[in-house]
Amino acid sequence: MKQHQGANIPLTHIIIYLCAMSINGFDGTVVVPVLPLMAATFKVTPADLSGVEWAFLIASAAVLPLAGWLGARLGAARVFRIFLAGLGIGLLLSGIANSVWMLLAGRIIQGVSSGVLVPVGLAMMYRNATGADRLRISRLTLIPLTIAPMLGPVLGGIMAQHMGWRSIFTLLAAFSMGVFLAACFCMKPEAPDQTATALKIDRVGLVLVLISTAGLALLPVAIANATSRASSPLTYLALTVLTLLAGALMFYSWKRAQKRPYPALAVGAFTSRMFRSATVSVGISFAALTGFFFCSGSSRSAWDRYADNRPDDVPRNSGIARWRAAHDSLKEVSRHPQTYDFGLCRCGTHHRNYCPPTPPWPGVCPSHVLF
């Protein structure tokens, strides 16, 4: 089997890992622009579906500390294949969902699978590589870890507009199943670490990670409430508790978790110069790609026209127009929840009608079909 130059890793393993990480990166951000379409399908509001994405993030972070323990106990290749299949099953479940609860279950399965795939895949790649070979692998992993999440919203919007939002999940599910079959044929199962069977899970660290992750997911909401005029003492209390929990997690990881072979959070990894340089490189690359994408000429000019109170000059099919329509709709609904009903047409136009405030919204645009 052909191997990657300079590393004792088969080239097929690297391709399989990059494909799996690309699917994982797309899955994390591809749903964001199509939440209004999904809400219209299930006859709920987009705000009601925000918990679906929170569940994905919390599930992904909650199982992250278990990845090392599972890889050592069952074998990294076996765990990689199992959770890659789980990712495909979760995507398929979301694609055929006929209720919000079915969609939520699919996203939770996707979050659990993606939370294990990334660290186990990295461990498989780094295990047989040393020195400069790890730097080469780090550069390769920048592709799925940075570019895929950036392209997710763009491709998700295009696919939802032309093929419907269900096509996003079904196509990703088919792709993930293809990668799973390739992994079954190309990756040989590894013998599990016999010493790992007697190791105990870092339960205290796992609970702290779970609570801190849930708190971080709710942190933007707490900050928004704290900065508003209607803020309450409970909001400031929640921010204080979140800060204390984060501090307790860092202290526990730095002092006590060093004695465990598989800690929930290994803060000591930052003492490695290679780890610090790789982390900084990934952060800078992601920030640069984000700035380039959102600060391009077309996006900036559209935003400037909207900021100058000239919304009619904004292209009807641009993302700014869709964001403006959705923002105005939610703003008006909060003011008059029992009077108005709103729809966002494919052309990006914001419509207002006097009708019962329950979806699905009627087709108010004479030249287009709603959603």
UniProtKB/TrEMBL annotation:
Subcellular location field: Cell membrane
Coiled coil: none
UniProt KW Oxidoreductase keyword: no
Lineage top rank: taxon: Bacteria
GO MF, one example: transmembrane transporter activity
Sequence ranges assigned to domain Major facilitator superfamily (MFS) profile in this UniProt record: 13-371
Keyword line: Cell membrane, Membrane, Transmembrane, Transmembrane helix, Transport
Gene Ontology cellular component annotations, sorted alphabetically: plasma membrane
Entry's transmembrane regions: 12-34, 54-72, 79-102, 108-128, 140-159, 165-185, 206-228, 234-254, 275-294
Membrane topology: Multi-pass membrane protein
Stated name of the protein: Major facilitator superfamily (MFS) profile domain-containing protein
Organism: Rothia nasimurium
